[in-house]
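If you are new to this repository, start here. Below is one unmodified record pulled from the training split, so you can see the exact layout before writing a loader.
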Amino acid sequence: MRLAGLFAAKDGFEEGDIAGVTIDVVTGLLAGLALIIGVWLLGSALNADATHVVSALAR
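And here is the target side for that same chain:
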């Protein structure tokens, strides 16, 4: 059940619906940001590993 349902009035589009949609949007943005940061950290870790491997092979 969406959180908007807790605040929504029985008839029409009320202020509670907007609050629920806002919560959904913020949650989506935070999830997207967390995904971007995770991919960036993984890429940084893999890049560092690759750099160490290449420098070890170059010796």
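Two things worth knowing about this chain: The mean pLDDT is 77. The chain is about 80% helix and 0% strand.
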